Amino acid sequence: MVDTYASKLYGICLRYLGDEFEANDVLQECFIKIFKNISLYEHTGSFEGWISRIAVNTSLMALRKRKNRMRFLEPLKEIENGFIDSIVESDLNEMEILSMLKKLPDHYRVIFNLAIIEGYSHSEIAEKLDIPESTSRTKLTRARKKMQEIYIKEMKTNPIDLKKEIKRTT
Amino acid sequence: MELNNHEQIIKEKMQSFRPEPDKDALWESLSQYVPQEPQKKKKRLWFFLVFLSLTGLVVLLLMPGNQKNEKIPFKNKSNNTGTINETKKIVDGKINKGIAETKIETIGINAKTEMQKKAKKYSHSTIEISKNPIVFALNKANQEENNASKSHEQFVEKSIVLNNHSQIEMTKRESINTLENLSNKLNLLYTNEVVSLNPTITIENFPKNKYLNYFAWNVGVGIGKVDHSYDPGNTGSEVFTKYFESDTKPSWNIDIGMSYHFAKRVYICSGIQFEQLVTRLHPKWDRIRDEQNPYYNGLTQRVQSKLEYEAIGHNYQNVLDIPLSIGLRTVETRVLSLSLEAGYVLNIFTYSKGVIVDEKFKLHYYTNTSGNPYGNFGGAWLLSAKLDYKINDNVGFYLNPVFSKRSINYEFSGYKFKEKYSNFDIKVGIRCKI
Does residue A104 sit in the same domain as residue A144? Predict the structure, then answer.
């Protein structure tokens, strides 16, 4: 089981925590939880889904321990509308996306992961994070904008990628 | 929730994202959950038992009871080296300029002669001393000597001492009282406060998994400075200590420790530490003091004493510490953790060698001759904090200040002594995966 699912769960931990060392620690904790609670698995849904939820929850718990975890009121710079459509993400590989995710503040990264990647609804996110549903929506909007900001910044600081990007868009 | 194009791509890519974790480390940490766990525990228990047995063996071998008792000849060196170079005297508070010097010389010489006679009368031929680092002790001879001469004492309240034709008014009653207290006390309590700063470089193995139960060990060596700050709890020892100077050579220690971590945040630790404290007495001692001689009526004298000890050498004190404490990781973040620890340390004084200076500045050379191993035990309460900084999965640093309050009771020549030490050590450690 460890060999089969370690990579999958490690990917989840990395996405949420954005830190390899911490992700390794949390991964260990995930497996311990899985071992201890395996009798609770009801065989109704997919096993992978069940252990993924454990990984998500354990990562969220680890994030809660962080001091700077929930700075929801961080101001955002406005960015141009419409730029989003010009981004051709298919050029980005997983590591680059992960690197962008890492640059998101913890609270935005959590929302982005839960909503965009895991596909949780706002009501589910609100329940999971113990926040109002409206807050979840606001955070997601900001997280999306922040991702775009990071993407723009990345392109500016990486001329090769930028050239590629220009070539593609023209 | 509707996803736009790029978000859809991100979702797909990240859902199929399979980075490789450090599987070896993962397996290692999860190994406690696989079936061979009982066997592994057994091995660890066996290792722990061997460690305890070795510790016990070392303690037994080093116990003073196993060492040959010695009787050390009493060497009274200060009789020959202590001199009174100059005396100026005022009798009963009356000043007699000009003629004072002649009288003083006479009385001074007489005093010296009589004091020497008394010292001879009460000195011991042999002396048996239990153990001790540096203390300022009264021996029985001095006690009797003081008592014998007590009936002749008549102290003045105030005296005036001539010094380069100027008058210095001094109240002497206080210091006389102190001497009197000294001679009357049968059980003296000396409370010496010692502060030691002992940076120790330690290597400690990393936990395989901080969420599981695990053993950790550490080895370390340290060298540091011990600062003897004599802050006596009784008035008696003030008489000695304010005139006497000593300093210390750097002490050193070797430290081997083990700890068992459980319940995520709690750990118990034990180990063994060998420590050598070395105190050096100043070979030369020069002072001028105004004092009253308790053996003669109303004698106030200015005494310039110059004691030159040939080679006092050093006082050595070897201590074996066996701590047992419990710790709690109170704060824990990704890279930092703070633990608090409290416990008790058993101190075993395995060897002592040195010299004791009594209130007459007589030197008593001694080695560890107690013959009673239980008399060499001491104890200390300790409190410590440990701040860990993790650089990565393999290396980390820690800072470990330790405060301990040590208390030793012992008997020397019929007098009971109690010493209290406040020790402050700092351990600086490296944690690494081995």
Answer: yes
Instruction: Say yes or no: A57 and A111 in one domain.
Output: no
ipTM for the complex? 0.72
Q: Which domain holds residue A48?
A: 2-64
**CATH at residue A49:** 1.10.1740.10
Q: Which pLDDT score, from 0 to 100, does residue B150 have?
A: 36
In a domain? residue A118: yes
Alpha-carbon gap: B408 to the closest alpha carbon of chain A (Å): 45
CB contact under 8 A, B393 and A87: no
B213-217: long-range contacts (C-beta < 8 A, 24 or more apart)?
A: B213/B32, B213/B260, B213/B261, B213/B262, B213/B263, B214/B260, B214/B261, B215/B44, B215/B47, B215/B48, B215/B258, B215/B259, B215/B260, B215/B261, B216/B258, B216/B259, B216/B260, B216/B261, B216/B267, B217/B256, B217/B257, B217/B258, B217/B259
pTM summary value: 0.41
In the predicted model, is pLDDT for residue B341 greater than 90? yes
B277-293 pLDDT tens trace: 766 555 444 445 555 55
Q: Residues A100, A164: one domain?
A: yes
Query: Which CATH number belongs to the domain containing residue A110 in this structure?
Result: 1.10.10.10
Residues of chain B with a CB closer than 8 angstroms to some CB in chain A: 1, 3-7, 9-11, 13-23, 25-27, 29-30, 33, 209-212, 332-334, 390, 392-393
Q: Do A90 and B7 touch (CB under 8 A)?
A: no
Q: Is residue A83 part of a domain?
A: no
B343/A41: higher pLDDT: B343
